[in-house]
Design a protein that fits this description.
By secondary structure, the chain is of the alpha/beta class. Helix 1 packs across helix 8. The protein has nine helices and 27 strands. The strands form seven sheets. Strands 3-2-1-7-20 form a five-stranded parallel β-sheet. The two termini are about 35 Å apart. The protein has three domains: about 180 residues, FAD/NAD(P)-binding domain (3-Layer(bba) Sandwich); about 140 residues, FAD/NAD(P)-binding domain, CATH 3.50.50; about 60 residues, 2-Layer Sandwich (Enolase-like, domain 1). About 20% of the residues lie in helices and about 30% in strands. It is globular.
Amino acid sequence: MGRRVRTVAVVGSSVAGTGAARALRRAGFDGRLVLVGDEAHAPYDRPPLSKGFLAGTLGEADLALLDPDDEADLALELHLGTRVDHLDPRAGRLGLADGRELAVDGVVVATGGRARRLPGTGDTADGDTVETRGVHVLRTLDDALALGAALRARPRVVVVGAGFLGAEVASTCRGLGCPVTLLDAAALPLAPVLGERVARCCAEQHADHGTDVRHGRSVAGLHTAPSGRGRRVTGVELDDATVVPADVVVVGVGITPNTEWLAGSGLRCRDGVRTDAGLMTDLPQVVAVGDVARHDVEGPAGTVGTSRHEHWTSAGEQADVAAANLLAGRTLVTFRPSGYFWSDQYGRMLQLAGRPGPGDRVEVVDGDLADRIFTARYLDGAGTTTAVLGLGSPRAFGRLRRAELGRVRQPA
């Protein structure tokens, strides 16, 4: 690949990929811009899948990231339903699974990740599939369509994993009238992110709405019964031998970054594609953005660590940085995340901005945790605000954020 960039291929068609395409045009790139996505669906937004779309209040059209005018303005060449098989950086070729090759001068890796599954209930490492009906993950539009169809009968639902995705799915299922049990191996899920005090408030909010919360319990196995040519889940056995009856099990235990197609490319891949702080890989013509990007971050006393973000806001914030550096062929700007994310649960928005430390003290500024409507700030040992949080108080959160952190970015 030469230094002059004439053709850029963006691999991945979700928010990180479409954001990178927009950023490249904003940065002045006027060459051929190709967007390759392995899903047949037009680019769509993922956060509503666990909320409005699953609840039935949003349709597929509401998820669209691009409309025909956008595609025309971006002069975007779309290859959807197309899986990328390999990258040959020396030849400047992107190989597609159907045998075609694209000549490229620059590549944006935005392939995200795939949902992890419980052992024996889905895709395995050797490609075999064990079908256990009633067991779902929620990562793609097709996942959401299948889960939504399963929820129409108001089944007994067990959600495995009480992170933000699992919490949102539990909330949506309760809103649909389903009996829900929420499981997590951690004694207090979300405590590493929100601190114990706020995490406990979030756990109590589930109980407030009738969700059966089982924290500190892991899954020992599934109980199933014959169903057609396969088997159907009937319950979830816990590590204490308790069996929770279930017609539907939703697994929300994280993702595995999609990096296998980069084998042999010369890129370092370990729990994501390794990049510097500017999202540049070891190859100056390749950058990575979104859930798949593991970038350098400065640690204490000048040490360098790595981080991989799985939030919608981070994907958007990374786009301009990656585009500028890709076109320059070197790192000119670095990624400085705002630390902002949000989650909708039980009709209330949880928002956080900044980076709270594990020992930070939580100070409630307005409202009350017991009412589940409040704003708070996180203070380090020196009394400096490291982050701000709001639950059910979007306006008050915005004011507090501007006052304490000086950042005003809100979700689109």
